[in-house]
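Revision sheet: structure tokens.
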Amino acid sequence: MANKTDISQVMFGKYEKGDAIPSIEVAKRIADALEVSLDYLVGEGTNSKFDKKTLMRIEEIEQLEDDKKNLV
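Predicted:
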């Protein structure tokens, strides 16, 4: 995970142990590496139960015409 997010292993270890709190930018990189939203990562907010793929699918459905939405 440290390699995917370009965060040092030492710093990532501190995040895991709760010895440090990542900045918003770092939290976003972690969420992106895990392919989840920040809401999902922290477990709060309207979208906290959905991963990015599900959120993208919901957005696609919202773009459909009403009759097609009803079918879905």
